[in-house]
Amino acid sequence: MNELKKITNLVKEELTKFQINNEIDIRFSNFNEDTDVQINNLIKIRKDKNFNEIVDSIKEKLRNSNFIESFEIVDSGFINIKFSSMFLEESLRNHKKNILEENEVKKGTVVFDYGGANIGKSLHVGHIRTLNIGRSLTNIYKMAGYKTITDIHFGDWGMPLALIIAYIELKNINIETLSSDDLEEIYPNASSLSKENEEFYSKALNISKEMNLKNEHRVSQWKKIYDVSTKNIKSLLTDLDFNFDYYLGESDVISLLPDFISNLKKKELVKIDDGALIANDSQDPPALITKSDGSYMYLTTDIGTIIYREKNFSPDHYIYVVDQRQKNHFNQLFKLVDYFKLSKSKFEHVPFGTVNDKKGKPMKTRDGKNYKLIDLYNDLINKLSENNLDSAIVSILAKSVLTYSDLVTKRTSNYIFDIDKFTNVSGKSAIFIQYSQVRAKKLLDQSHVESQLRIVGNDERELVIEILKFSHFFKLALETNEPHHLAEYAYSLCHEFNKFYVKNKIFSEDINEDLKLHRLYIVEIFYETINKVFNCLGIEPVTEM
């Protein structure tokens, strides 16, 4: 709510007169119907010798402000303020004018690295967090005026792929007829075999070396596996409305590493330690660049990716939306960026918790395998199809549930994916917020809305104030990289709209045209606002339910 600046500037101006330069802590109030916002700065300066004089000065300013209906400075030090109806009317007009405006790109370029799917495997339920959070943050940054670049960045090179090739050769599997289902079985079998069969592991290691040397036969085998796996992954991503600017991976940066490592050696930024190559800095544990057998680490390919992005994108900011269990990895990576002087950009790891079953454990199938993302999506389809809705609507609702249920959870928290709870029309669910926007759309479809806004009355007040909170929560989500704030706001906004809908008749014989248009005007702004929030979260609104 940009209009809050009027109040913060007013209070700050008075405090500055007394050489007090604290930032103004202003927040919306949900505890008192006579209070719209609270300021707690006076609590912090209660012992100031000029306290009473400061209070009198602020009171005088507030009394003379035409945008304040009433205020109270309580003994504890809170300043409780209620907006005037005319101020709310003006703010609502400004909100409507600005809500659909897109900011010009002027704040720099941000690269979002999220997804991180490993080829040879299907996307599992755990991937939904990086996909949802990454997409939402991309939308928020783009809306805020940043140029965004998204890259899923496949894990598509090294030993995992070499193990698959070694297993295919061992079992005489026809690589020409290979399917994604085949790969689903091959990789875990190959991984297990490598741990108990030294000869098999050695073969895979040799294949990995041949791949790095661009052996034509090995690269051809890799390409067939890559094509099968990525086709399957991309198809699911498209079906779930996840799109990326780039589908790059480790294979795209491997060629950059030999020269890079050679340069590190010349500059004595690395050293040999028991056959392995480690960074010559003071990190503990030391940063491993290559193993003793010469194979690259994830850390190494991540460095190669930064080199690639610096050359091709020149970003100002890198955001890695990756599981919080990778915290140490990124701490080490970012230290190496500084040590090797790879970039002057800002680097940030945005971690998140896990998706669990009702027992609080990561979701698995009955036989202990990873719960595939496609299976969860189909389970939601089946559940929502019980309501006899159009199949296209069911599909959108299922994707909405996947998205909203995830984002309404605080990013760093683990959560239980409860299908029954998340598909319920009541409560904090995607179905509830979708139902609310459909209800608003149906009202608007019944009549042409002309610009008709009069003084905001008590019947509309709570909804109007909730609408005006959008910019506050948008800014909060942007500053904290936490879409949770906007997801929570979506629920609060829809909750207030439904209260308004029940309380205020619109299409009734005893409602005059002027009042009808006034209320429809507010409904229209609600509808535009909730759809703006949907856009931020990555949710497609349904047209009917």
Strand fraction: 5-15%
How much helix is in the residues? Answer: 40-55%
What is the general shape? Answer: globular
Query: Uncertain spans, ≥5 residues at pLDDT below 50?
Result: none
Strand order of the largest sheet: 1-2-4-3
Instruction: Output the number of helix runs.
Output: 20
Task: Using the CA coordinates, give the radius of gyration.
Answer: 28 Å
What's the mean pLDDT score?
A: 90
The major pleated sheet works out as: 4 strands, antiparallel
Class per helix and strand makeup:
alpha/beta
How many beta-strand runs? 13
Distance between the termini: 31 Å
What does this structure look like?
Helices cover 52% and strands 10% of the residues. The mean pLDDT is 90. α5 links the parallel β5 (109-114) and β6 (147-151). Among the domains are: 4-83, Arginyl tRNA synthetase N-terminal domain (Gyrase A, domain 2, 2-Layer Sandwich), CATH 3.30.1360; 158-246, no CATH class. It is α/β, with parallel strands linked by helices. The chain starts with a helix and ends in an 8-residue tail after the last helix. The chain contains 20 helices and 13 strands.
Task: Annotate the secondary structure layout.
Blueprint: H1 4-17, E1 26-28, E2 37-39, H2 41-44, H3 51-63, E3 68-73, E4 79-83, H4 85-98, E5 109-114, H5 127-143, E6 147-151, H6 159-170, H7 180-196, H8 198-212, H9 216-239, H10 257-266, E7 270-273, E8 276-279, E9 288-290, H11 298-312, E10 317-321, H12 327-339, E11 346-350, E12 355-356, H13 373-384, H14 391-407, E13 415-416, H15 419-422, H16 430-445, H17 458-468, H18 470-480, H19 484-503, H20 513-537
Parallel strand pairs: 5-6, 5-10, 10-11, 12-13
Antiparallel strand pairs: 1-2, 2-4, 3-4, 7-8, 8-9
